[in-house]
Amino acid sequence: MAILSAASSLLPFSHGAKRLSTKASLASRTSGFNFYSLRNSPSCAPRLYVSRAVANNGGYTEISENETAPRTYTWPDKKRPRVCILGGGFGGLYTALRLESLVWPDDKKPQVVLVDQSERFVFKPMLYELLSGEVDVWEIAPRFSDLLTNTGIQFLRDRVKTLLPCDHFGVNGSESSVTGGTVLLESGFNIEYDWLVLALGAEPKLDVVPGAMEFALPFYNLEDAIRLNEKLSKLERKNFKDGSAIKVAVVGCGYGGVELAATISERLQDRGIVQAINVSNSILPSASNGNREAAMKVLNSRKVQLLLGYLVRCIKRAGDSESSEEDGGFLLELQPAERGLESQIIEADIVLWTIGSKPLLTELEPSGPNVLPLNVRGQAETDETLRVKGHPRIFALGDSSSLRESNGKLLPTTAQVAFQEADFTGWNIWAAINNRPLLPFRFQNLGEMMTLGRYDAAISPSFIEGLTLEGPVGHAARKLAYLIRLPTDEHRFKVGISWFAKSAVESIALLQSNLTKVLSTS
Ligand SMILES: Cc1cc2nc3c(=O)[nH]c(=O)nc-3n(C[C@H](O)[C@H](O)[C@H](O)COP(=O)(O)OP(=O)(O)OC[C@H]3O[C@@H](n4cnc5c(N)ncnc54)[C@H](O)[C@@H]3O)c2cc1C
């Protein structure tokens, strides 16, 4: 795999052209590629580019900030099909790996480039375990450069800006058009493709009530989890010094809200108060009864205060408006959504927002007359084969796409759906390239899983009606199920060893502390 950008992130912007050239030369030698993109952070860092051919003997190109050479991604092979995958989450990364695992006729094996704004794939269902200390970052958020080392997949760290498809029926020809279109990246590069996979996911929607954008924290990606962990650690240190209770408000009692409330209340124990707010008068309205009851038991045992039947009207800073965000707490004004309840104002040191998301496709710049068909939520509409309607060379999957099941219901935006869609997308690209019929996607609901803390979880498998695995058994089963779904055999193996070693150490520590207790009481 060519590391087109991960290596570049080692370079601070202030480095001079000479030093950059050396790095570019090194990168080109390892990658065999003739362009190199440099960026430190997806959104704000200044960038430099090398886009001229670099000799295979290790020669390099002098570059400067004013480099103006054409910035077109050069595919290594002129003949083989070019597949560009946007987004390296459950949809995108697993499609790339699926393409890699299929058997291809020699001249048809596609060249695959995977573009993501982040340098890491994030296994989002296990972000909670970063707060409980159960997992390390590398285990659930491995670098693309590590994951793709032994594959032919090229990784490019960049942010997608504009799509310029030219496969639209009636505009630029039919399915047999020579190219599928072009993607423009924020760095200025463009990638011409034959097949495009859209898997950009979604982002949290906080602009719903006044104050949420400014004061509430989302819990959606690795950065959110790290920031929350740091905030909790800071408050824990304060609590250690002055004994002040740590107050956490969780807005929303869907899966995300309940998993957060359970994880944080377990972490804080009697040092904190966790309040969870929900508009309906129950938690987990869409979950199975078994999961809901298991979650309710855990939340009650951890003294999580449930404020059910309330809407958050606004969030404000508490006390002195001059005090910095770091120091002050927040006030949440709650408005009853059910009869018989009274308005309330609650205080919190941390407000976590878990409601709503918006697909990222709407943020891409308009792409001329060949715009993609988006539904009201901003998801790309696909046909059953996961091709975007009217765009035979674009596949879309995961949170940024929409497909109705045969019963007319939209597929949920879950990792389970994206993971299964990736399998079909990979296969259907194979079929399209080899002129075979494409398969219609059928979602197979395998059930629901949720974490409820370090030794607790709830699982309701769909294939055994009424069964819910709870407590440590559910916890072990969930972890095993996720271990199996981690990307690449090599990563799974490393994580498996690591988790096994951690649980062995934990068991020994538990045994020791039990022995000490027994000995001290005898
Ligand atoms: C905290 C949390 C817990 C969850 N738990 C579960 C669970 O238990 N079970 C379950 O089934 N689902 C769960 N989900 C939902 C699940 O994670 C998503 O449905 C799934 O990740 C969707 O996959 P995706 O490929 O569409 O998007 P993602 O996995 O989000 O991947 C999108 C990728 O696109 C990249 N990207 C976005 N915009 C750009 C851009 N402009 N340029 C370049 N790159 C870009 C992002 O960096 C990201 O890597 C959870 C989600 C969260 C946030």
Q: Look at the helices and sheets and give the structural class.
A: alpha/beta
Instruction: Examine the secondary-structure arrangement and name the CATH architecture of the domain at 71-203 and 359-434.
Output: 3-Layer(bba) Sandwich
Bound molecules: flavin-adenine dinucleotide
Fraction in beta strands: 15-25%
Total E-strand runs = 25
How far the N terminus sits from the C terminus, by CA atoms, comes to: 61 Å
What is the mean predicted local confidence, pLDDT?
A: 84
Number of helices: 12
Please state the CA-atom Rg, rounded to the nearest Å: 25 Å
How are the strands ordered across the major sheet? 5-4-3-9-21
| Low-confidence blocks of residues | 2-68, 170-175
- At CATH level 3, the topology of the domain at 71-203 and 359-434 is FAD/NAD(P)-binding domain
Main sheet characteristics: 5 strands, parallel
Principal-axes geometry comes out as globular
Q: Would you state the CATH class of the domain at 71-203 and 359-434?
A: Alpha Beta
How much helicity do the residues have?
25-40%
EC number: 1.6.5.12
Protein name: demethylphylloquinone reductase
Catalytic activity: demethylphylloquinone + NADPH + H(+) = demethylphylloquinol + NADP(+)
InterPro entries: FAD/NAD-bd_sf (IPR036188), FAD/NAD-binding_dom (IPR023753), NADH-Q_oxidoreductase (IPR051169)
